[in-house]
Amino acid sequence: MTSDPAELLRQNALSVTAQRLAVLRAVSARPHGTADTIAEDVRAEIGVVSKQAVYNALGTLVEKGLIRRIQPAGSPALYEDRVGDNHHHVICRSCGKTGDIDCAVGESPCLTAAVGIGAGAGFQIDEAEVIYWGTCPACLAAKPGN
Amino acid sequence: MTSDPAELLRQNALSVTAQRLAVLRAVSARPHGTADTIAEDVRAEIGVVSKQAVYNALGTLVEKGLIRRIQPAGSPALYEDRVGDNHHHVICRSCGKTGDIDCAVGESPCLTAAVGIGAGAGFQIDEAEVIYWGTCPACLAAKPGN
DNA sequence: CTCAAAATATGGACTCTTTCAATAAAAATG
DNA sequence: CATTTTTATTGAAAGAGTCCATATTTTGAG
Asked: Among A32, A69, A124, B76, which one has the highest count of C-beta atoms within 10 angstroms of its own C-beta?
């Protein structure tokens, strides 16, 4: 097992830098954070970091599969720690709160259902991205006419 | 039935303007177009149109449910004609080609599967957005090592 | 058909997120 | 340690959308 972040980076042929380690920590500490909030967290930990370094680190880590990027409509990209377990997301339309939803249909849910149907015929599908849109409990309670 | 676009607008309490009619036509004529390509089509039809008018029209039409907006990660928003039939989309990672995929699981597919599970508990979900990512036939053929 | 009120469109500035590029600074390598 | 390679920094800039004040159209009522 590789629970050591530095070791994790080395295993992926990446230099071990303070920035990357801090980004990695920030992402686990605050799932569903944006590049911006992550940058803040990183700065709180190691001082000055360029915005670009954060974007680079996030991009590289996503490429290597160490973290996952979610890009919901109308909001900046979010990053999270949980990878490889095919889960989906639910996002609140009014406050933007994001939650995880485990896939109810085994490994690759809707994925299998769609291959080679209709206009999508012939596509080689490698990922099914599912986002549930709705209203979170807090916003439901705050809504008028409730 | 209301096959007349102008009538459609009136039924939704919208003023009938040349811009809106042209936008409506452009969206049906070219499904999965971006605000930009739609603006081009509209200009080809009625001459000068401000970018803002196109965004306004698109926004309003989406609100009224006359067209649908899709916002794939890493690309501008796309608009399409087909509404109310709960279909999904497949997007090619290399060329961006977008296709429709009918839902294989009846009315609201993955939607029902998820309510009240895990961290998403308590959310009132109103839409399940599914995007399949992969490679289209053409790009598959063009790929090296094929 | 005509005019005032309401709804839209125009143009241009501006925001936000992300990327590019050149230079400087750290890591990895032997 | 010295060198080579990989990263980080900084500042500019692109892309997509939005905001605002003003000018035009539509609508609806005489």
From this structure: A32
pLDDT digits (tens, 9 = 90+) for B125-144: 888 888 888 888 888 887 65
The fold of the A85-142 domain, in CATH, is Dna Ligase; domain 1 (3.30.1490)
Task: Determine the nucleotide nearest to A15 by Cα–C1' distance.
Answer: C27
User: How far off is chain A from B30, nearest CA to CA, in Å?
Assistant: 15
Q: Are strands A124-135 and B33-34 parallel, antiparallel or unpaired?
A: unpaired
What are the backbone dihedrals phi and psi of residue B70, each rounded to the nearest 5 degrees, phi first? -120, 135
Nearest to B113 among A105, A122, A127 (CB): A105
Query: What is chain B's mean pLDDT, rounded?
Result: 85
**Which pLDDT belongs to residue A145?**
47
Residue B143 CB partners (closer than 8 Å, separation 6+) = B135
Location of structure tokens 């801090």 = A22
Q: Which one of A118, A136, A137 has the shortest CB-CB distance to B101?
A: A118
Same fold, B5-79 and B85-142: no
Q: Which residues of chain A have pLDDT under 70?
A: 1-3, 103-121, 143-146
Whole-number Å distance between alpha carbons of B88 and B125:
17
Strand-by-strand arrangement of the A68-70 sheet: A33-34, A78-80, A68-70
Which chain B residues are closer than 8 Å to A128 by Cβ? 130-133
Q: Is the CB of residue A124 inside 7 Å of nucleic acid strand D?
A: no
pLDDT digits (tens, 9 = 90+) for B23-41: 999 999 999 999 999 999 9
CATH topology (fold) of A5-79: Arc Repressor Mutant, subunit A (1.10.10)
Confidence (pLDDT) at A101: 84
- Contact assignment for A88 to B74 by CB distance below 8 Å: no
